Amino acid sequence: MKIYTKTGDKGETGLYGGTKVSKADIRIEAYGTVDELNSYLGLVRDQKIDAYTFENLIKIQKELFVVGAILATPQEKETLKNGEKRLGRTMVTDQMITDLENEIDKMDAELPQMTHFVLPGGHTTVSYCHIARAVCRRAERLVVVLQQKEIIEPSVIKYLNRLSDYLFVLARKLTIDNKAQEIKWIP
Questions:
Q1: What span, in angstroms and rounded, lies between the C-alpha atoms of 125 and 33?
Q2: Is the pTM of this model over 0.85?
Q3: Structural domain contains residue 4
Q4: Which among 9, 21, 49 is positioned nearest to 132, based on CA atoms?
Q5: Which residues are CB-contacts of 81 (< 8 A; sequence separation ≥ 6)?
Q6: Rounded distance, CA 55 to CA 162, Å?
Q7: Which CATH number does the domain housing residue 35 bear?
Q8: 117 bridge partner residues
Q9: Torsion on CA atoms 15, 20, 22, 24, rounded to nearest 10
Q10: Tens digits of per-residue pLDDT, 58-90?
Q11: How many CA atoms lie within 13 A of 182 on its CB side?
């Protein structure tokens, strides 16, 4: 299989199911930003982190492929002519969101209480994690815009919202793990 198809040479791309849209379409922007987020999570994972966090990030990266597949599939293309779902059982589940919440709670219980906003940075690994968090927030905003135009599973926004919270808490944990200083923002 060739990696280049030349079908995008005129500024269009195909969604899951075959619908052609502009590469500037909000749907493309949304799932492209999820892809960017996934790449940043790979960068975080490539740093010196503990094995548990490493495995958890792989799990999240796989879940982001689910999110991307959902965003790449227009509602009218979700069901095949024979009545089966195009994506099969691919969906954002309540368990995926609960897992993020549990991880947040577990990390938060080990961290010093937060009394102020903190400045991103302090260690390269922490900075990469904050970049991933910011990209996650952007993805969430883009999905909200897309949802104003088209029907999008509400669980996608909920997942991205929770993931950005997870990444914030992970950045705080990585600050401790790397013996970096957490700098408070005091106006």
A1: 20
A2: yes
A3: no
A4: 49
A5: none
A6: 18
A7: 1.20.1200.10
A8: 185
A9: -10
A10: 999 999 999 999 999 887 656 556 666 655 557
A11: 20
Judge whether 171 and 96 are in contact, CB under 8 Å.
no
- Closest Cα partner for 171 from 115, 124, 101? 124
Beta strands at 184-185 and 117-118: parallel, antiparallel or unpaired? antiparallel
Which region, left, alpha or beta, applies to residue 10 given φ > 0 means left and ψ of -120 to 50 means alpha?
A: alpha
Is 135 contained in some domain?
yes
Both tokens assigned to 128: 């990469």
Query: Which structural domain range is residue 110 located in?
Result: 23-74+86-185
The ranges of the chain with pLDDT < 50 are none
Summarize pLDDT for 45-66 with one digit per residue, the tens: 999 999 999 999 999 999 999 9
